Amino acid sequence: YQRIDASLQKLTESIAAYNPSVAAADELVAADEAVKQNLDDLVRHQQNHLRIQELRATSESLDETIKTTLRLLADARKDIASIPAVDTKAKERNQQFGIHELLTYAKFIAPTTVPPTYRKPLKDDAGRAPSKTPDPSSTAVAEGAGDTTAQISNGLSTPQAEDQNTTVTQNEGAVATTVGHKSMEEGELAWLNPKIDASAFQPWPNALVMSQGALADVQMMVERGEDPKLKLSKEEQAIEDLRRAREEEEAKARKEEEER
């Protein structure tokens, strides 16, 4: 500013003397340019100062975050160190079973063991249930036979009221039993049926079933010298066929383009 003041004073004096000085004017312009450059540097300096303050605040925040993370890691390490070690080898040893142990357990399995969910299909109850309506002719014959037996055994004509009561009671019990069976479902009758034919059930597959399974296919592949791991399923084989067909079409198209 002193340079500007001096240059301005010289120029003013030269104008007042009616002899304007070109050198004083040039010096004033140069001084003004210098002041402008210094102001730009000052603005840049202030901007840099603000940027430095922001970076310091960011650095302090990151330092605090790092310290917090290290504290959490130290606490986690202490918690992990306080957990008792687990012997994985002992667990693996406990999960292994010997052949003698398996055979000892298998000897308690009977060949005809029935699973708890097995139920024999029930036949038609209509063919086994007695008729609810007694036959008059058979009833009369039974009554006549009862009278004759009573006369022969006793030698006298005795009343048959007691026999009739017994016959009526048996008929009523039979009818009630039949009605009870008729009103029950097949699943409920299966629970009450103690005679379950379990001969068709086998707790393990026989040779015929095993020859029709996937293990038999694997054994046949091994005997043919094939690797079962490289054998694809139907879905995978279909995908592989599509991929090969697509590759063949692309190769054919490239060959046609090269010939053109």
TrEMBL record:
It comes from the Eukaryota. GO terms for biological process: regulation of transcription by RNA polymerase II. It is found in: Nucleus. GO terms for cellular component: mediator complex. The keyword Nucleus applies. Keywords: Activator, Coiled coil, Nucleus, Transcription, Transcription regulation. InterPro entries: Mediator_Med4. Residues 148-168 have a biased composition (Polar residues). GO terms for molecular function: transcription coregulator activity. Pfam families: Med4. Residues 114-168 are annotated as: Disordered. Residues 232-259 form a coiled coil. Belongs to the Mediator complex subunit 4 family. Component of the Mediator complex. Component of the Mediator complex, a coactivator involved in the regulated transcription of nearly all RNA polymerase II-dependent genes. Mediator functions as a bridge to convey information from gene-specific regulatory proteins to the basal RNA polymerase II transcription machinery. Mediator is recruited to promoters by direct interactions with regulatory proteins and serves as a scaffold for the assembly of a functional preinitiation complex with RNA polymerase II and the general transcription factors. This is Mediator of RNA polymerase II transcription subunit 4. It comes from Cercospora zeae-maydis SCOH1-5.
